[in-house]
Design brief:
Layout (H helix, E strand, L loop, with lengths): L4 H25 L3 H6 L6 H11 L4 H13 L5 H4 L2 H18 L7 H5 L2 H39 L3 H47 L7 H6 L16 H18 L11 H8 L4 H18 L1 H14 L3 H7 L13 H6 L6 H37 L5 H23 L5 H11 L4 H6 L8 H25 L10 H20 L6 H11 L7 H4 L12 H27 L2 H21 L7
Helix pairs in contact: 1-9, 1-17, 3-9, 3-12, 3-13, 4-14, 6-13, 6-25, 8-9, 8-17, 8-18, 9-14, 9-17, 9-18, 11-22, 12-13, 13-25, 17-18, 21-22, 25-26
Length: about 600
């Protein structure tokens, strides 16, 4: 496709502004490790919330949604929509607990909650396991999306795309620290939203599509529109709806949707001014992530079924794309090649923004693990702030290099998504319970981590070759069930057959974080002088459920208005508004420090 001077000007301006933000924030970011990784713990909810949304606006997300819609229809999105329940639990239960902990990273939590060498091992190992291994896999999926966008829209070779995308991101991430990332995310979010909405509107006006009504009635599309799967086909209902809502959201660990909060979501909460700003940031994130953004992507995905009904049609249209990079997820980028001058510049800038915002967050988050939870904690505790910032900047560069090499080996965003879900299967419940049940110890988490990884390797690598356990193609969800069941049984047994943490460790954690006392009574009853926090779990859980209903109703309302189903749209809109009113009225009742 031809990129005009106007388009290139828009793209270059975007790069210049992103670089400028990094340069302007570099001096303050370099003053201390806390400033570099947490922005001095003084960030407002709106900036943190937008940053969370921008990070999950990654270029691989519309590709993933497109793959899902083309394969399983709109209802297939429940595989990630179900994580809203996790998100709302974080908003109303865990955000304030994280902020009270005052740790620098969520891995530092391990030596606050647990004690001795097992806690130190857990912190060190997960610093490398998550900060390097997992983080590199996530950034590789984002880089894979960039490769596909660059190949389809700009005709770039994979290495050329990676070089362009990574250099600017590494520069402003390593210079500006978290504050540079937050400010750039804020700027990039609005570009990304404008690009996605503008692209969806233009695609609907294409002669091949004609209008929204023509799209919705086209035979290639009409059977893909249902928001809920067909309940006459339980081979679809179980994997697409029941598994995500009944098991996946609480039982699996996935970056950005960790049960109990964690990762870069925890990093944002820890950098908030106070508990209320931490809660507000995560609430805004969940509303925007699930209710505001999906439908422009879905419209483009549905439209692609008319222009490119089969993957072979994309192969014919883009013969220069490597065969291993061809897939349904390529359809999103393919549709964007039809955009006109001016809009294509904005859309390309928005896609670049999506790539860079996610990469920059993961680079800063991953390097915070390497620096705070490995280098400073175990290699050089006496390191100065200047040295720690320097190590953070070096690790930022190295993480990007590793991710770039892995991206060249991947072929599908959905493939990587499923592998990550399988690796985290069965660990999620620990992250929910460890704040509220005194009996969980470091061995609980070590056992879960090892077992879940071994089970994932078995089902993703060994079993497909040896067919030890027969799993029909339409029952792939059984792998997740096996993973959750085996891992959960393993960590429960490990918990019961190992000693609990020492009383002084548990009491120190309890006094600092002050969770509800219900799951701590066996410990607290030994110390009558300890004040037993009653907490507000019933109210918090009630607000979590209300918030979930509110956001799902808003998500459905937008879909029903698009589909022209006025009655359903009106009902869903009213439910969403009522949910918002209930949350606003109870906002002042949320107990803080």
């Amino acid at each position: 496709m031809n990129i005009s001077l106007i388009d290139w000007s828009i793209i270059i301006a975007f790069f210049v502004i992103s670089m400028l933000i990094g340069v302007l924030t570099s001096r303050k970011a370099g003053t201390s490790a806390k400033e570099f990784f947490l922005s001095g713990r003084n960030m407002p909810w709106w900036l943190l919330g937008v940053s969370m949304v921008a990070t999950t606006f990654s270029a691989d997300t519309p590709n993933l949604v497109t793959d899902i819609v083309r394969t399983n229809g709109v209802s297939g999105n429940w595989v990630w929509w179900a994580f809203l329940l996790t998100g709302m639990l974080t908003v109303f239960v865990y955000a304030k607990l994280w902020r009270r902990s005052e740790v620098t990273t969520d891995l530092e939590f391990y030596e606050l909650r647990y004690g001795g060498k097992p806690a130190a091992f857990l912190r060190a190992f997960r610093a490398i396991y998550l900060g390097v291994f997992f983080n590199v896999v996530i950034m590789a999926t984002v880089s894979l999306a960039a490769i596909k966008i660059g190949g389809v829209m700009l005709g770039l070779a994979p290495w050329e795309t990676l070089l362009l995308a990574s250099v600017v991101t590494v520069i402003y991430s390593s210079l500006g620290g978290l504050k540079g990332v937050l400010l750039t995310d804020f700027f990039q979010f609005f570009i990304a939203m404008a690009g996605a909405i503008g692209a969806a509107i233009y695609v609907l006006d294409m002669p091949e599509i004609g209008s929204l009504n023509n799209l919705l009635t086209h035979p290639n599309v009409s059977d893909k529109l249902n928001i809920l799967p067909d309940f006459n086909d339980w081979n679809l209902v179980i994997p697409l709806l029941i598994m995500p809502l009944a098991i996946q959201w609480w039982a699996t660990w996935y970056p950005g949707a960790e049960p109990g909060g964690g990762g870069y979501i925890a990093q944002r909460m820890l950098s908030a001014k106070d508990e209320k700003n931490a809660i507000g940031a995560t609430l805004f994130f969940n509303i925007a992530h699930y209710a505001m953004r999906p439908w422009p992507w879905i419209i483009i995905a549905l439209s692609s079924l008319i222009i490119f009904p089969q993957v072979s049609d994309m192969q014919e249209a883009f013969p220069h794309i490597p065969v291993d990079k061809l897939g349904n997820d390529l359809a999103y980028s393919a549709m964007l090649t039809f955009l006109p001058t001016g809009l294509i510049g904005i859309v390309l800038a928005s896609l670049i923004a999506a790539v860079m915002s996610t990469l920059s967050t993961h680079l800063n988050w991953g390097s915070s693990y390497v620096v705070n939870d490995f280098y400073q904690r175990f290699l050089k505790p006496e390191a100065s702030d200047k040295e720690l910032v320097a190590v953070g900047r070096i690790s930022t560069v190295l993480l990007m290099v590793l991710a770039a090499f892995l991206a060249l080996a991947l072929s599908s965003a959905l493939e990587a998504f499923n592998i990550l879900l399988q690796i985290g299967a069965g660990t999620g419940l620990i992250f929910i319970l460890r704040w509220f049940w005194w009996r969980i110890n470091a061995y609980t988490e070590i056992a879960a981590m090892i077992i879940s990884f071994v089970v994932a390797i078995f089902f993703e690598v060994i079993n497909p070759k040896l067919s030890i356990i027969e799993i029909p193609g339409h029952q792939e969800y059984l792998k997740l069930l096996y993973g959750v069941g085996i891992t959960t049984l393993g960590w429960v047994l490990a918990t019961l057959f190992t000693k609990p943490e020492k009383d002084e460790v548990l009491l120190s954690f309890y006094r600092k974080v002050r969770p509800a006392a219900l799951g701590w009574k066996n410990l607290l009853n030994k110390y009558p002088q300890e004040q037993q926090e009653q907490g507000q779990l019933p109210l918090d859980i009630g607000l979590m459920l209300t918030g979930s209903v509110m956001v799902y109703a808003a998500l459905f309302a937008v879909g029903f208005w698009i589909y022209g189903q006025t009655l359903y749209a009106s009902i869903a809109s009213i439910v969403a508004i009522l949910g918002g009113i209930i949350i606003i009225k109870n906002w002042k009742n949320i107990r803080l420090r």
